[in-house]
């Protein structure tokens, strides 16, 4: 069986991810994980306390389809990691209630969810409804986690700088990010003591968080994965022209709101991690409302479909 590509505004006619469905009960592959980001669960306009400028009626259905795709993978992944921005914009509590219902089938199928926050989230409502998928954090007050995959550790960092209460509902108040002194201190200690290879993940980029030097100089960190920009974004981190160490960084698409749409597969191997794009669509909602779908959008999806990125361990 082949999983059908999803599109909010029309078929991208891109090669779909090959999904083998067997008759026996699905097995869990401990070496396989799915990465998602920027879910952006919306409320109808009539229920929004803080107005977002427009409605996004397609996102809920898109998330359901993607959850079904993940459940159809054979074997199934052992983990689904979410790199923040569960809320559409201003962290309305019912958005997290809806997100919990949409993602619950993954847990029911034996897949472990691990989540962190983005700049559109607030920790209190996030943890109230999704806290069971965070676990015990090593940094009090932060949504930080360490997951031991078969061949390396995946560290999810909390890069959220919450807006002041009087600035709720203002987009300008969501533009900052910050790890905080306590989380930075913990991360430095964790990496200094690390005995296994490490990939770092956060909603924001390593550059935005001031982590490029940390990533490059650590003998154990061999990759950085982020969300936030809603696009497949391959880059390379290095620090100073006298350095020879280069570390891969990879951005994730959104899970349905705009620009690159899809998720990624991450495989744990003895000497590397392998990252595969599952590119499902590309669109800008406001442009779609005004004109036919540009052919270039389909070209972008085809260019990204099934692209692979290798993260080799540091020697």
How would you describe this protein?
- The chain is an alpha/beta fold and 315 residues long.
- Helices cover 23% and strands 25% of the residues.
- It contains 7 helices and 12 strands.
- The strands form 2 sheets. A 6-stranded mixed beta sheet has the order 3-2-1-10-11-12. A 6-stranded mixed beta sheet has the order 4-5-6-7-9-8.
- The chain starts with 27 loop residues before the first strand and ends with a strand.
- 44% of the residues are buried.
Please describe the biggest sheet, giving its number of strands, its sense, and whether it closes into a barrel.
6 strands, mixed
| General form | globular
Distance between the termini: 40 Å
Using DSSP, what is the number of strands? 12
Query: Which band does the percent of strand residues land in?
Result: 25-35%
Task: Compute the number of structural domains.
Answer: 1
CATH topology: Purple Acid Phosphatase, chain A, domain 2
Numbering strands along the chain, what is their spatial order in the largest sheet?
A: 3-2-1-10-11-12
Percent of residues in helices comes to: 10-25%
Order of helices and strands: EHEHEHEEHEHEEEEEHHE
How many helices? The count is: 7
Return the CATH architecture: 4-Layer Sandwich
Oligomer: single chain
In the predicted model, the low-confidence regions spanning at least 5 consecutive residues are 1-22
Q: Residue-averaged pLDDT, rounded?
A: 91
The first-level CATH class name? Alpha Beta
Radius of gyration: 19 Å
Can you identify the CATH superfamily? Metallo-dependent phosphatases
Q: SS-based structural class? A: alpha/beta
């Amino acid at each position: 069986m082949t999983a059908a590509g999803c599109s909010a505004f029309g078929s991208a006619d891109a090669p779909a991810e090959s999904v083998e469905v067997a008759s026996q009960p699905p097995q869990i592959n401990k070496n396989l994980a799915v990465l998602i980001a920027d879910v952006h669960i919306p409320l109808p306009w009539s229920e929004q306390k803080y107005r977002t400028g427009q409605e996004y009626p397609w996102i809920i259905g898109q998330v359901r389809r993607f959850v079904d795709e993940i459940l159809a993978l054979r074997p199934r992944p052992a983990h689904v990691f979410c790199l923040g921005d569960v809320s559409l914009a201003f962290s309305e509590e019912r958005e997290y209630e809806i997100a919990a219902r949409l993602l619950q089938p993954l847990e029911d199928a034996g897949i472990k969810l691990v989540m962190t926050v983005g700049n559109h989230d607030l920790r209190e409502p996030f943890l109230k409804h999704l806290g069971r998928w965070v676990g015990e954090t090593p940094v009090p007050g932060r949504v930080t986690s360490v997951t031991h995959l078969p061949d390396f550790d995946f560290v999810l960092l909390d890069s959220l700088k919450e807006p002041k209460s009087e600035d709720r509902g203002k987009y300008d108040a969501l533009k900052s990010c910050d790890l905080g002194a306590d989380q930075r201190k913990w991360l430095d200690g964790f990496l200094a003591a690390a005995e296994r290879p490490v990939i770092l993940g956060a909603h924001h980029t390593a550059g935005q968080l001031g982590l490029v030097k940390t990533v490059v100089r650590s003998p154990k960190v061999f990759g950085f994965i982020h969300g936030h920009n809603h696009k497949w974004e391959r880059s390379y981190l290095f620090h100073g022209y006298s350095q020879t160490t280069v570390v891969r960084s990879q951005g994730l698409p959104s899970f349905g709101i705009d620009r690159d749409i899809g998720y990624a597969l991450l495989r744990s191997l003895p000497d590397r991690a392998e990252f595969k794009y599952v590119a499902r669509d590309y669109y800008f909602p406001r442009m779609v409302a005004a004109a036919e779908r540009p052919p270039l959008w389909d070209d972008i999806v085809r260019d990204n479909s099934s692209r692979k990125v290798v993260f080799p361990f540091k020697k």
